[in-house]
Design a protein that fits this description.
single chain; 190 residues; mainly alpha; 79% helix
């Protein structure tokens, strides 16, 4: 991965010099990096708050109760891990974080879920169907409340930052349903 990033940076430098615009490189290094840092600083409080809330949900036992209600769905989608409470809880936490639009906070939960699923995976070198389904659902992820996007829109001065709620719910629901159907189709073919 490191080689890929170094290669992309090198190509960017070569391209800016070859086009006779080395000032573009300077602008990116000086000004766009500052914009990135500012963006991260603005998003940190939102991420910290929701990560803390998810930890409270996990430690209070609410998550275990929620996972009991989600058991039929988990049984259908994640057959290999349906009896592993730790894996199911990690999956539920990740899905909940993604639904709330805090995908960055969901990363830690997603890593935990994959570790738990890998623990029960028979072939340690190949992802099982549950792991593949988990990745597919995370990539397409239904977002009920896209908090990060609403925060970015508010910071950018949008008149109604939350007016993207319905289109976001519709688009992400559609993408997730299609992704799950295709994953199940290919799972049966194997």
């Amino acid at each position: 991965m490191r080689k890929l990033w170094v290669g992309l940076i090198f190509l960017g430098i070569v391209f800016s010099v070859a086009n006779g615009k080395p000032e573009t490189l300077t602008n990116v290094l000086l000004f766009d990096l500052q914009k990135s840092v500012d963006l991260i600083i603005k998003l940190v409080p939102v991420m910290a708050f929701w990560t803390g809330m998810m930890r409270i949900v996990e430690n209070s036992g609410i998550l275990n109760k929620l996972s009991i209600h989600l058991k039929p769905l988990v049984r259908y989608l994640f057959k290999e891990v349906q009896s592993d409470t730790k894996a199911v809880n990690a999956i539920v936490l990740t899905l909940a974080a993604n639904m709330l639009g805090i995908g960055n906070s969901a990363t830690a939960f997603g890593i935990k879920a994959m570790e738990e699923m890998q623990r029960t995976n028979r072939d340690k070198k190949t992802a099982n169907s549950a792991m593949c389904m988990f990745v597919i659902i995370n990539v397409s992820s239904i977002q009920l409340i896209p908090l990060s996007i609403i925060k970015l829109r508010a910071d950018a001065g949008a008149a109604v930052p939350g007016d993207i709620l319905l289109p976001t719910i519709a688009a992400t629901t559609f993408s997730t349903v299609i992704a799950v159907l295709l994953a199940k189709y290919f799972e049966r073919k194997m």
